[in-house]
């Protein structure tokens, strides 16, 4: 097993530790599980997730568009 070091906001680390405690695990174990899941995802899933993070500021105002409206050019 190889050791790595990450930097993160101190409050975020404490929040993550608290979540890990509620799951009766350690932050280290939780991170290893997350890393395994992250590494096993197909790249297209990661690409979609990255795109969704980039577009999270977009808000339709709750309006639902019809199929025809979505396909208009």
Which labels suit this protein?
73 residues
Write a structural description.
This protein is mainly alpha-helical. It has a domain at 10-56. The chain is 60% helix and 0% strand. It has four helices and no strands. The longest helix has 14 residues, at 27-40. The mean pLDDT is 87.
What is the mean predicted local confidence, pLDDT? 87
Structural class: mainly alpha
How much of the sequence lies in strands comes to: under 5%
Number of strands: 0
SSE arrangement:
Layout: H1 10-22, H2 27-40, H3 43-54, H4 67-71
Brief write-up:
The chain is an all-alpha fold.
């Amino acid at each position: 097993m190889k050791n790595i070091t990450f930097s993160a906001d101190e409050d975020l680390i404490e929040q993550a530790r608290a979540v890990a405690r509620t799951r009766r695990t350690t932050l280290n174990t939780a991170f290893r599980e997350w890393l395994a899941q992250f590494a096993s995802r197909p790249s297209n899933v990661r690409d979609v997730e990255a795109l969704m993070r980039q577009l999270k500021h977009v808000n339709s105002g709750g309006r639902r568009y019809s199929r025809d409206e979505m396909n208009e050019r």
